[in-house]
Amino acid sequence: MNRHGAGMVSLASPRCATDVIASDVADAVSDVVQTDLLSCGRCPRLRHYLKQLRHQYPDYWNRPVPASGNTDAPLQIIGLAPGLHGANRTGRPFKGDASGDLLWRVLSQLGIEDQVQITNVVKCLPRNNLPLASEVRRCQRFLVPELSAMPMTSVILALGGVAHKAIVQALDARQVDYPFGHSHCHQIGERWVVDSYHCSRYNVQTGRLTETMFRDVVELAYQFATDQPK
């Protein structure tokens, strides 16, 4: 494989918010971490915003969104934060909006919908989809155990530069050694991280990310995970 830097090689309908914490979500993190997450109010700006949204959208989830999927999955997909009418509505990461539609369509095309865990580096909806650096740091208390709960052979697919940086921090590595780049793969300690542009509507509409590009990088990450010796 060609190396481009330290540890890097190139390489459906939403449910009602009241029933979203199903067994796949409950299994994603420990009971203690999940309880802490669902009651978290450590970020004043996000807490205030969600309080406003409970009045504006009373049928939405409007709470921190836990990971979804199994902790023994070969692929862990990590995005930025819940979307207003997506995960913030449904209570499940990447469910109910355009970015989620693209992600699940690609997973379906590859036949791996049940072989992934999906989460975000920031668990609460940030205003204008822009979390503060302090909010990303506070959410490390949830991201770190999510990473630790996965098999060491699982591969992390980072959706976007912010997610990539948060993952590098959570793995206690130096950012300068692992620059973000679409389809780049980094070995960070014993873990492998594959980067992708985020599957947001904006990136798709501007042509920065096409569905083919996204399918190729998801397939790359999955093949990399399943080809590793167990």
What is the 3D form?
globular
Largest sheet: 8 strands, mixed
Mean pLDDT: 89
Helix proportion range: 25-40%
CATH homologous superfamily grouping = Uracil-DNA glycosylase-like domain
CATH topology call: Uracil-DNA Glycosylase, subunit E
Supply the number of structural domains.
Answer: 1
Spatial sequence of strands, sheet with the most strands: 1-2-7-8-6-4-5-3
Termini separation: 21 Å
By secondary-structure content and strand pairing, the structural class works out as alpha/beta
Tell me what portion of residues adopts beta-strand conformation: 5-15%
Order of helices and strands: EEHHHEEHHEHHEHEEHH
Please tell me how large the radius of gyration is. 16 Å
Q: Could you tell me the number of beta strands?
A: 8
* Overall CATH class: Alpha Beta
What is the correct CATH architecture? 3-Layer(aba) Sandwich
- Ranges where pLDDT stays below 50 over 5 or more residues in a row are 1-6, 8-29
